[in-house]
Structure formats: C-alpha cells, structure tokens
Amino acid sequence: MKQVIFVIGVSGCGKSTIGKLLAEELKIPFFDGDDFHPKANIKKMSSGLPLNDDDRQGWLETLNALAKKQLTKNSCIIVCSALKEKYRDILSLDIEAETKWVYLRGDFNQIYNRVNRRRNHFMPSELLKSQFDTLEEPKKSIQINISLTPESIIKTLKHKLMDKSEFGLFGLGVMGKSLCRNLANNGFKIAMFNRHVDGVEVDIAKDFKAKFPELSQSEAFDDIADFVSALQQPRRIMLMVNAGKTIDYVIEDLLPHLSENDILIDGGNSNYVNTKERVDYLKTKGIHFIGAGVSGGEEGALKGPSIMPSGDLEAYKSVQPFLEEIAAKDKNGLPCCTYVGPEGSGHFIKMVHNGVEYVEMQLLAEVATILEALGQNPDDIANTFETWKSTANSYLLEITADIFRKKEDDDWLVNKILDKAGNKGTGNWTTMASAELGIPSTLIASALFSRYISFYKEERLQLSQNFKNSSTSELNLTTNDILEAYQFARIINHYQGFKLISEASNTFLWDLNLSEIARIWTNGCIIRSALMEDLVDIFKDTTNILTNSKLIDLVNQYRPSVKKVVSQCVLNDITTPALGEAIQFLNGITTPYASANIIQAQRDYFGAHTYQRLDDDSGKSHHTNWN
C-alpha cells in the first residue's frame, strides 16, 4: 500500500537527515517541508519572529496537496515540524489511512545544542523554546529517540514501517480463509491467526499458508502475542469468529497485547445491540471497534463481498483502503463498501439484509413448488427461472436455477434433500427488531416461521395423515402469472426491509443513507439483483419506494396476478405464506379505514384503554361504559 511518511519534530531534531537517509533506504522520493514555505514565512522566521497559525495554514495545505499528488505514483517521505494535532490533521486530510507519522523525540538541551551548531539555517535557536511550548506530542506515531545513531534509527524505522504486516485476520474458518486470500491477492501483507487446540486444531494457519501461493508473503500464527506484535501500529485486526460470547472471549484474549488506538473489526453476524456495547466498552480501553457486516458467502469473501462497516468514522478511515480494495465493485467501479454510520448500524443493516434474504429464498421456494404442481420437473423449473432473468434477475434466482439442474445418480439432488430449513439467528433478530421498532416486517416474520414449521418434520408427517389434501379444482395458472406474483412480492419485501432500516435510522439518530446502502448491495452480497440497482436511484428521491411512480405502476400491474396465484394455491392446498402475506400486507397498508377501530373498542371495553374519535380533531382520549 502506498503511504506518505511524515518525519516530524521540533527544529534541530534531525528530521531532514533522517528523512533523506530513510528515503534512500526505502528508495522513495524525499521532500523537505521547509522548501515549500512561502517567502513571507522565511523572512518572518529569519527576523526572529515565530509563525502563527495563519502563516502555517497555506503551507500545510501545500504539503497536503504534495502528499496526495505523490500517492498517485508512489510512497514518499515529507519532513515537517507538524507540532500541533490540528496541523497534522491538515497534512493528512483525506489521506489519513495512507499516512504514517515518525516523531523524532529529544529534550530541549539536546536539541538546543544541535541548533547552535548549525550554519545557514533560518531558524535561530531563540525560537526553539516557542516550538517546545507549541509541541503536542503525537499519539499515533512511531516515536524515535534522537540519541540513537542515524544508522540505528533507520534500521528501527525500516523494521517498523516495512517488515510488519499491514492487516491481521483472526479466525480461519471458511469466510476467514477466503478474506485472507482476497487481501493477499490485492497486494496487502497480512498476518493470520487461528487458535491451537491439541489434537483438534493444530497448525491451521501454517498449513493454510502453505496451500496457497498468494499467501507466501503472509505470516501465520497460533500464538496471540506473536500475532499482535507482527502488526504495524495502529493495529488493524479483523475478527472472523462465531458471533455471541466468542467475540467477547476473543476481545479479552487480545486486550493485554493491544495498544491505544488499535482497531478491532468484527466481520461476523453479530447482534447490533452487542456491537454497540462493545464499541462503548473498548472506548474505555482506548481501542476502536468497528462492526462490519460482510455478505457474499465463501465465493464473495474471496472474489469481493459487500461490506457494511460502522463505528468511529476516524477509525474507519484507517481501515478503509483495505476494506474497499477487497470489496466487490458496483457497475460504476465503486467499491461495494461504505461507512454506514455510528455504533452498531453496520451490523443492523446486515441483519436486515439477511431478513430480506430469508424472504427472497422463501419466495423462490414457493414459486418452485407451484411450478412443480403445474407438472414441471426440476429441469423445467430451472429453464423457467432462466427465462425470468431478463425481467427479474437476481443472484438467488441464478443459483436456484443451478440447484434445480444438479443431478446425482440420474436423479435431481434437490429431491433428496431433507426438507428442514435451518437458521443462524439473524432472521429472529430482524423480526424482534421489527417488533421493538413498531415496523410491520410481516414477510420476514412469515419466512422465518416457515423455516420453523419445516423443522417439525415428524409432526408434519403425522398431521398430513389426519388432514388429507381436499383440493377440488385444477391449478389454473400460467408461468407469467407466477412470475408477476413473484415480482410483486419482491417489491413488498424490499419496501418492508428498507422501511425497517429507515425507522432504525430515525430512532437511533444514525442518519443512514438508503441509496448508498442499496448501492453496496448491488454486487457481492446475497440479495444483489436488478431491482436493487433500481432502488439506488429511487432512494435518492424518497425513503418510501411505494411512492415511486415506476414501482406504483408495477405493483398495480402485478397485483391481479398475485391475487390469482394466492387464491389458486389456497384452493389447491399449496402453501404460499410469503406470497400470501405480500398481498395481504398491500391490502392492509393501502386500506384508508382499517378494522382497528373494532380493536380499540374491544380494548376500551375490557381494559378502559380509551380511544380517539374521527369526529374529534383535538386528539382527546375517550372512554365508554360499553355494557
């Protein structure tokens, strides 16, 4: 990774000497910041007057522009006093992640004597005290004692800057391994860690490194202390371990070895509430914590996933080049990775992503069941899905077509799979979050409960004998009817998912950008689709996709088909909970006068909960003695 190395410190500390020697050793360009002072600054300092902040502003901006220009070509070294934190902020503006600080540290007497020995320098020794008074020692820096010889300083700096790994990956499960290879393929020097368990997990990292040529420059560890010490500071460590208490155990194992301003990234499917708690806890330790949803499965992690990081913005800037480089790219070549927002917002939208994914999978399962009832075999169903790609394409549609084509021993594999659907918790969390925020994510709940029902295999077999299929009609449907019903339900699904994100943004003051979230979901992730690409532009004008004229027309076009499909399935005892809920939800959300008046009357009758009246605009609560 290209980087600009600022060698900083008070005048006389040896910045120019060390900077030149280091540039020669690293074979990168060297620039002396003093050469870029305007004439007015040089004249002022030569007359014995210290510069003020107004004098420095333009000079610092010039050096920042120089650094940016050089980074387009190569790494470079710039020497500059950079005595205050705000000066360093100007120097590193927009290039924080590519900036390294080398602070040459010495005491006043030591440097005073050096300054007095110099000739033809415009900084008189009388100004040295003002520099020490101004100095705010940098926390995020490589600090070097100037009492060392120049040779020792260069050797130390080279080791700290070049020999250590840029990024650490903790946990080498399926996703962790794929992300390691992705990072290495993109030119990053990484350190990899996997625990050692006698007889169970032995030399996992070393064996993994030996298996793939792209990992030849990576470092492999099963000792935490060695792993952490192999990383450049501030350390950037991505945790790819199981969500829940395991994350907390790993954090406690790492903490004794970390330093202030190190950054931990949780790339698992953690609950957003727990992520917020970890952000707050680690802040007390001086450690940054980033909750990053990662979607794309094993292939996505290797070739480019969608990444949803959240937490401290400044900490994100330090890991931004790594995450954005390994992320998938959208149709415009932009990374499918963006800073989502504060706290656990990244894990929240990953949770909702998975909830929407539950529905998309359920809908495809339902339409496949309907197509089977029409007499299509798995090859026919795959062919039907192929024809749908021109109008309703998605990653899940593509892989489901592949699934229906796969054969084993002259029979379709899908027919041999036990019909029990598992889940890892994100669907549960999305449903609970919907209830807590008061958002009717009914399709997500329906898809989740469909999985629960599937798990009762033995009871389903028993009850199927008690309640025989009572169908008395033919399934009067076309594949176009089914396609339009499917497209209808997908629009409702995406409406509900983004409605939940919007409500969370308002409730938790996250200020989430729905268009940008849709954009990073257009590639790399499981729910990428043509519809998602349309939503990128739609969300630039509204937070409610059902107010968009194009989608209004489509919903009205598809509505007769979904009603026909759902009613035909009910008459033929075919289970379509997600398709059915889609039309029921639209009926409910578009009903100007709902049956809730009866509910309120009932609540007032048995519990005196009161109600409001249509003929009273004051908002006053009313109570009636109903009996």
From TrEMBL:
SUPFAM superfamilies: 6-phosphogluconate dehydrogenase C-terminal domain-like, NAD(P)-binding Rossmann-fold domains, P-loop containing nucleoside triphosphate hydrolases. Residues 346-627 form the 6-phosphogluconate dehydrogenase C-terminal domain. CDD domains: GntK. Pathway: Carbohydrate acid metabolism; Carbohydrate degradation; pentose phosphate pathway; D-ribulose 5-phosphate from D-glucose 6-phosphate (oxidative stage): step 3/3. It comes from the Bacteria. Keywords: ATP-binding, Gluconate utilization, Kinase, NADP, Nucleotide-binding, Oxidoreductase, Pentose shunt, Transferase. It catalyses: D-gluconate + ATP = 6-phospho-D-gluconate + ADP + H(+); 6-phospho-D-gluconate + NADP(+) = D-ribulose 5-phosphate + CO2 + NADPH. PROSITE patterns: 6PGD (PS00461). It is an enzyme of class 1 (oxidoreductase). InterPro entries: 6-PGluconate_DH-like_C_sf, 6PGD_dom2, 6PGDH_C, 6PGDH_Gnd/GntZ, 6PGDH_NADP-bd, 6PGdom_BS, NAD(P)-bd_dom_sf, P-loop_NTPase. Gene3D superfamilies: 6-Phosphogluconate Dehydrogenase, domain 3, N-(1-d-carboxylethyl)-l-norvaline Dehydrogenase, domain 2, NAD(P)-binding Rossmann-like Domain, P-loop containing nucleotide triphosphate hydrolases. GO terms for biological process: D-gluconate metabolic process; pentose-phosphate shunt. GO terms for molecular function: ATP binding; gluconokinase activity; NADP binding; phosphogluconate dehydrogenase (decarboxylating) activity. Its EC number is 1.1.1.44. NCBIfam families: gnd, PRK09287.1, therm_gnt_kin. Belongs to the gluconokinase GntK/GntV family. Belongs to the 6-phosphogluconate dehydrogenase family. Homodimer. Catalyzes the oxidative decarboxylation of 6-phosphogluconate to ribulose 5-phosphate and CO(2), with concomitant reduction of NADP to NADPH. This is 6-phosphogluconate dehydrogenase, decarboxylating. It comes from Winogradskyella thalassocola. The lineage of its organism: Bacteria, Pseudomonadati, Bacteroidota, Flavobacteriia, Flavobacteriales.
